[in-house]
Amino acid sequence: MNIDYSRVPMPDTETPEFRPFWEGTREGVLKFPRCMDCGQFHWYPQPLCPNCHGMRIEWVASHGKGIIYSWSVPRRPFFPPLAESLPFNVALVELDDVPGPRLVTNIVDCVLEEIRIGLPVAVVFRPVAKGVVLPLFRIVKD
Amino acid sequence: MMLKDRIAIVGIGETPPVRRSEKNIKALMLEAVNNALDDAGINASDVDGVVTESNTAPLLLPHDELAANLGISRLYTGTVSWAGTGIVCSPMVAAMAIATGIANVVVTYFGVDWGSSPAGPYNYHEIYAAKRAFEVPFGYYGQPLYFGVIANRYIHEYGLTARQLGSVAVTQRRHALLHGHAQMQKPLTYEDYERSPIVADPLRVADCCLLTDGACAVVMTSAERAKDCRQQPVYVMGSGFASGTIPTGSSLTQKPDLLSFPAVTEARDLALEMAGISLADVDFAELYDAFTLSCLMEIEDMGFCKKGEAGAFVEAGHTAIGGTIPVNTHGGLLSHSYLLCIEHLVEAVRQLRGQAGAAQVQGARIGLVGAPANPDYGVLILRK
Questions:
Q1: Is residue B75 a contact partner of residue B102, using CB atoms and an 8 Å limit?
Q2: Fewer CB within 10 A of the terminal residue: chain A, N end or C end?
Q3: Do the beta carbons of residue B37 and residue B47 sit within 8 Å?
Q4: Which band of pLDDT confidence, cut at 50, 70 and 90, is reported for residue A78?
Q5: What ipTM did this prediction achieve?
Q6: What residues of B are in the A interface, CB distance below 8 Å?
Q7: Nearest Cα to A117, choosing from B145, B154, B252, B143?
C-alpha cells in the first residue's frame, strides 16, 4: 500500500491551535491536548475543554501504541489527489494511553487484507514535506 | 403556547428529479416554489414569510432573491440548523412565526445541482480546519469513506450481512418504482446489489445515495386558513430539534458512539411530546438515507427496532410498504433523489393526502420525517 503523500494537500502546521501536534511529530512524539483542570483529553483541538469548559490546556505525550478502531479502503477516486494511489487504507486508531480521541491515519507496511479491527499498532513518523511529519501506524507483530 | 396543530402544509411543489438538468438551480428552486403555490391555490402576493436551512438553500437562492422573484415583502425571514435537520425543522420555525401572528403564509424550499456540479456534496468538508489538518493529508476524504469506516465498525460490533445491508437498497428501489416519478426507474435485485462495485469497503455504489439536480418547496399557513386552500391540509402535529456536543467537523470520527446519530432520541421525544402521541402511532417514516447504513442506524436510533437489529428488521420486510413501519416510501435519497430530505417532507405530505398512488401506505394518518446534520437532528410529525 503506497500513498503518494507528495500529492495530498499538506496540513497547515502553523495554525496556533494545532501547532503543538505538528511540533511533536517533527520531534517523533505524538501529543494530544488535555485539560489541566479536569484531566480529560479531547480531539480535535479546541480552545475550551468540552468536559468542563476549562481554558487551561496542555499537550501531553502518548507512547504511540494503540489499536485499530476501524478502517476502510476507497476503491474509487472521489479524492482526486490520490486517484493514482488507489487502493489505500484509512484507519481510526485509539491510543492506549489517550482515552477518547481517535486518530485518523494510514496503516503502513502491510497488505490491505491484514487490516482488522482490534489489531495492535504503533506509530511511525513519516516526513512528507518541508516541516511536515505525518503520524502513520504499523501493525505490531509479536 | 402550544405549536401542535397550529399550522398545516397546504402546498407542495417539486421539479422532476434528474441527474443533470438543463435549468440552473435558481430556476429549479423558483419553479418548485411556483408549483407549491399553485398546488395550494395561494397567490404569491400572500406569502409573507420564508424559512430555510442555513447552509445551502440561501446560498443558492437567497431569501431576498426569492422575494424579488415573487414580488413580495417579507414579515419574517429565518434559517434553522442546516442540511437535512434544517429542512425538517423549517415547519417548526414557520409554526412559531404563524402562531405568534408574525407571518401568515410561509414558504420553505431546498434544492441542489450536485448532479451537474463536479465537486458534488464533497467540498463542504473542506471548510473545517481540523479536517484539513488531521484528515485530508491521510486521504480520509469523502462521505462514502467516512461511512465505510463506520460500517466496518458496525459489522464488528453487531454483525451485518451483505444481504441485510442490501435489503435497504432493494426495498427502497421497489418503493421508487411504485412511486413512478423517482430518479431511479430500473429494478434492483439482490444480485444487482452484490454486483454493484465497491466504493469504499464495505459500501457499494448501490449503498450510496444519488446525485441530483432538483428542488422542492412547501407552503404553510395557519390551520384556520388551511381550510380555504385547494388541497386537504396536512397538519404539523409535532416537531423536535436536539443536538450532540461534538462539532460537525469532528463528529464522524470522534463521537464516542460511532454507530448512532447524535440527538435522535431527544429530538424524537420532543416531537412525540408536542404531538401527544407515542412512536407506535406513527404509520410510516421518511428517514435520511445518504447510505443504506445510515438508514439502518436511524431506524434503530428512532426506536423502530433494537440497536444492531435493523439489518434483520429490513431484511424481514418490516420497512416495506405494507409492512410494520414503511420507510422511505418514495425510494429515499437512495432511489428517489438526493435533495437532503425536502423530498421526504413532500412525500410525507403526499402520503397523508392519500395521493401516493401505487406507493400509498394504506390508512396512513400520522407520518414521521427525520434527518441529521451532525451533530443536529430534527424530527417532524405530520397528520392528516
A1: yes
A2: C
A3: yes
A4: confident
A5: 0.98
A6: 122, 129-130, 132-142, 144-145, 148-153, 156, 197-202, 245-247, 249-250, 253-254, 256, 258
A7: B154
